[in-house]
Design goal:
With 364 residues, the chain is of the alpha/beta class. The strands form 4 sheets. It has an 8-stranded mixed beta sheet with strand order 8-9-5-10-4-11-12-15, sandwiched between helices. A 3-stranded mixed beta sheet has the order 1-2-3. The protein is built from 11 helices and 15 strands.
């Protein structure tokens, strides 16, 4: 019987592609340790993105592959995750207590952006990450409701300087709604809004987060520009519906992030199809294939396509979004896939982040 070699083990691992990194474990740099003891092989892998739900199946797949090697009678594969800090804009320092910032944006309102942001944050937490969410939609904050935080709840203040985020469903939550009266509209001009956003991000005592999800206001205005110039954003997710008008505005969102050198990790299509609860008939109420067209046009991925389902709305309104309310449902599994895709794409794009251009204003 021929002796098992490290090269043979690596060659076997190269036959399998991580579906999120889109590389084999060796090429992706995930292999931490390979030990060969006679006919027994032990491999330790480290993934750079949160994927606790993915670990068992991936380990089993790789283990089965290794046990097919000549001379191997048993193999053991262990996985762990270590999320590192990444950012897009080279001249902006990484935040000391937040490793990766994910902006969830839309070109227009009413496309399910806040619901997507809430479920993305919860899914990342379920994948084993330390997660926070910032409600930057200052004119219409809704994350407090979605996370079931009682009206009138106020964050504690530490050392007369730091807001302590409110924890709900394992996620740290901060919103302007926690600092104001829910029934009073925010009648602020752009600079005031931008200043409030920066204060919320930098003066919140985030507890060593792997990911901070920012629920952006719709559009491409002051807050989006402030975010790109002052905050180290690792990547953005653009939310749309298949409707032509929504896609037109979503294109503007993609273009905006590209101009300020924030990677667009991909597109999420909401309300893609409605399935009648009585007869099971599927109908594309807002059009069909719009998310795929947008993704193809800009060379980005369609990260998820979600149905128009009453349960998604009801669960978010009740303070228990789908990932928490029905964690084993097909919709929740779609959000889990989205979370792993987003985390992996941050890892893949981190080394390719371009330099941000210098913007000058002249009188010409």
């Amino acid at each position: 019987m021929s002796a098992v070699t490290r090269a043979a083990v690596e060659a076997a691992l190269r036959q399998y592609t991580d579906p999120y990194l889109e590389q084999d474990p060796v090429s992706a740099g995930c292999v931490e340790r390979i030990e060969v003891s006679g006919d027994q092989v032990e491999v330790a892998l480290c993934l750079g993105y949160a994927a606790a739900q993915f670990h068992p199946g991936w380990a089993q797949t790789l283990q089965a592959g290794l046990e097919q090697l000549a001379g191997v009678t048993s193999a053991r594969v262990t996985l762990r995750t270590e999320v590192l800090a990444h950012k897009a804009q080279a001249q902006i320092p990484v935040m000391a207590n937040v490793k990766n910032i994910i902006a969830v944006a839309s070109g227009k309102g009413g496309v399910g952006k806040s619901t997507t942001a809430a479920n993305l944050a919860l899914a990342l937490a379920r994948e084993g990450a330390r997660v926070g969410i910032l409600d930057a939609d200052i004119y219409g904050p809704s994350q407090g409701i979605m996370f079931g935080i009682a009206e009138g709840t106020r964050p504690q203040v530490r050392e007369q300087k730091w807001f302590v985020p409110i924890k709900a469903h394992g996620v740290e939550v901060m919103s302007m709604a926690f600092l104001t009266d829910d029934n009073t509209p925010m009648v602020w001009r752009g600079p005031m809004v931008s200043g409030a956003l920066l204060q919320l991000i930098t003066q919140t005592a985030w507890d060593n987060l792997d990911y901070l999800v920012i629920d952006m206001p719709p559009g491409t205005g002051d807050i989006q520009l402030t975010l790109s110039q002052k905050v180290p954003v690792a990547g953005s997710v653009v939310v749309t519906t298949p409707q032509d008008l929504a896609l037109l505005d979503a294109r503007k969102g993609v273009e905006m992030f590209r101009k300020v050198n924030i990677p667009v990790l991909g597109v999420v299509e909401n309300m893609a199809v409605h399935v009648c609860s009585n007869c099971g008939h599927a109908e594309h109420l807002f059009g069909e294939g719009g998310g795929e067209k947008l993704a193809a046009q800009y060379g980005v991925e369609l990260l998820a396509s979600l149905p128009l389902a009453m349960a998604i709305r009801e669960q978010a309104d009740s303070g228990r979004p789908t990932v928490v309310a029905e964690p084993e449902s097909l919709i929740a599994m779609t959000y889990q896939q989205l979370a792993r895709q987003v985390g992996a794409r941050i890892v893949r794009q981190a080394a390719q982040a371009p330099q941000m251009p210098t913007i000058t204003v002249s009188d010409d």
